[in-house]
Amino acid sequence: MAELRALQDTTKQSWWQRLSSGLKRTSASIGQAISDLVTKRKLDAAMLEEIEDALIRADLGVEVASRISAAVGKGRYDKAITPEEVKDVLAAEVEKVLAPVALPLSLDGAPRPAVVLVVGVNGSGKTTTIGKLAAKYRDEGKRVMLVAGDTFRAAAIEQLKIWGDRTGAQVVARNPGSDPAGLAFDAITAARQEGSDVVIMDTAGRLQNKAVLMAELEKVVRVMRKVDATAPHAVLLVLDATVGQNALSQVEAFRATAGVTGLVMTKLDGTARGGILVAIAERYRMPVHFIGVGETVDDIESFSARDFARAIAGLE
């Protein structure tokens, strides 16, 4: 038992290291702005406004930035304040926003196979995320089927096959240009017959033609329900943190199109705009299931509000 706890602690620590390292560009950007503002000055209305502006530039959103600056100012007017004090307030306020949406993805109550539909714009990291999730479920001993539903891109199909080989998950694919709805029907039917535990389906993400995308996704869901009236059991929207404010419009579009049930935020290690996750949580109150901070199979983890809030504030 002690050995298991030690292993869990090591895993937790290594994930924290990856998370804090991945968010370094965001935390460094915010931290430098805060240090520049509060050093050798007493707190006044002008400083609070500048702190708020710095947080807005980090994509935390106007509402959250306003609340944080107000919390920083509470009881501190005309007093010296340290960067660490501001970071403590920042972490506490961000955690308040994120705690209600930090919800694990649970498929325990779903029928077998549990069907997960993964949506998002091309380049957001959908296929890589699917591979990482397949690895997690395979590590739990589950039988996983991956469905190459982005049938318009041969590269996406091949990438999913590579992830299947890497994780030991079965992959169902057709030739490029095939009907993704028909593929979904065949895959779920086969998964039922073969006793699969989880089916994860990729989809196209051509947002430049929203009408076509909406019709296609609606058809996929409609056809899935001919096999299982309760499917899909989760619809995950994969968002690329590097796009900043554009992620908000993606949530809007896919929530209306695909009935998104939860979010996955990727590429947090590639941007100083990691605060966008806070703005999304504040506006949409949608569950955030996973975040990714790298390309390796271990660089995705269930979302922790406290860990994220402390990492974005640059706290140890």
Helical fraction: 40-55%
Give the amount of beta strand, in percent.
Answer: 5-15%
Largest sheet: 8 strands, mixed
For the largest beta sheet, what order do the strands appear in spatially? 3-2-4-1-5-6-7-8
Keywords:
12 helices; elongated; 316 residues
In short:
With 316 residues, the protein is of the alpha/beta class. The protein has helices spanning 2-22, 24-38, 45-57, 62-73, 83-98, 126-139, 154-167, 180-194, 210-227, 246-258, 276-284, 305-313; strands at residues 114-119, 144-147, 170-172, 198-201, 234-240, 262-266, 288-292, 300-302. Helix content is 53%, strand content 12%.
Give an account of the 3D structure.
This protein is an alpha/beta fold and 316 residues long. Helix content is 53%, strand content 12%. The chain contains twelve helices and eight strands. The chain has helices at residues 2-22, 24-38, 45-57, 62-73, 83-98, 126-139, 154-167, 180-194, 210-227, 246-258, 276-284, 305-313, and strands at residues 114-119, 144-147, 170-172, 198-201, 234-240, 262-266, 288-292, 300-302. An eight-stranded mixed sheet has the order 3-2-4-1-5-6-7-8, with helices on both faces. The chain starts with a helix and ends with a helix.
